[in-house]
Design a protein that fits this description.
The structure is a homodimer. Chain A is about 70% helix and about 0% strand. With about 190 residues, chain A is mostly helical. Strand 1 of chain A pairs antiparallel with strand 1 of chain B. Chain A binds a DNA duplex (30 and 30 nucleotides) through helix 1 and helix 3. Chains A, B: GO terms for molecular function: DNA-binding transcription factor activity; transcription cis-regulatory region binding.
Amino acid sequence: MEQVARQSSRLATWHALREATLRLVAERGFAAVTVDDVAAAAGTSRRTFFNYFPTKAAALFDPEPELAGRLQRLTEEAPVTDDAWADLCWICASFVRWGPPDTLHVYRQVAESGELSDYPVQIHRHLEEALEAWAARRFPGDPLHARQLAATAGAALVAAFRTWDPATPAGEFVRLADRALAAVTVRRAGTEET
Amino acid sequence: MEQVARQSSRLATWHALREATLRLVAERGFAAVTVDDVAAAAGTSRRTFFNYFPTKAAALFDPEPELAGRLQRLTEEAPVTDDAWADLCWICASFVRWGPPDTLHVYRQVAESGELSDYPVQIHRHLEEALEAWAARRFPGDPLHARQLAATAGAALVAAFRTWDPATPAGEFVRLADRALAAVTVRRAGTEET
DNA sequence: GAGTGATTTGCACTCAGTGCAAGGCCCTAG
DNA sequence: CTAGGGCCTTGCACTGAGTGCAAATCACTC
């Protein structure tokens, strides 16, 4: 029961590490920052860093602790209409309207630098996993369709993200995301051939 | 002019390294194979390995030297109709019909093992880059649309790949890919809002 | 047979990531 | 107040990826 203090101190360390990572990477670029730098800047040891994040990249991209819950709630509140793709778009549209997206700028910077070639996966892995779980629940008999729904939505968001001009406010990114999502339709092809 | 022997020996080394990588990874899994192992198995030194591949993963995923040219040719031969998405699907459908896809099985194995979390990018990075170049040429004024076309096609192929049962012949994968591609439509939303 | 250029290799180094075991901190129970 | 039990932190030592550098080697030319 007295985990509260524990928990909050754990959270505090987590945020200290994340913040240090964001700041240092924004200043110097991903490759030029070592884990030792981050740990020192956050006031912990190198070994502790790896108690919180499995990877240097994870410190940049792992979702904030609250985020999982929020995503969960979003997928529960999502409308359920005939048009699964539209419902999915609702989730995505809600999702991109959240963030305190200081991170967005750092992510773009990392993306453009070409260090960390797999940034697109990193960025939206957790979103896409949540979408896929949602779709899998909805189409338990058609894993191809479920995966494609999630992947297509992810593709739209990444395309929007890459096209977004980081000099403009984050609202611009939201507009691009809406546009991309609206441009696509994913039908459900029957399992049998036509 | 006498580069021929040079070239072919370079090619031979390249293929020796790739083959050794594929074989060892298939046997032991990605994580359990070291670069030293691969280099030794290919009869070269560790340092030479890195002259050919920037990364251990690259030895698994970098496209065969011919592949770039073939992709190039595919994007040139592609039909040019009113429906850009359909043209793109033609490219993708042709592409997945090629392979000597021993690699497909190894890739699946690596994917399932969970080592190498970014396998989806790795697998189709080069395809998606080619598609994006094609789309960018076609829609020079609409980078969002170009990127989304390529990314959506990539998403369909990855979904198909992940759904494919590796116990079945590779032709099954082709069928799934066709189905996924056919299920999607990407329209071009005007730059101005509706 | 010497020279030129590309390729190979060894060496030494940095840094990511991991396992292990010791230490410290906070709380609870006696 | 003290003893003990978890959890968290830390240091240490180790493996392995990836890189820069310089020597050596090879293939071919003149």
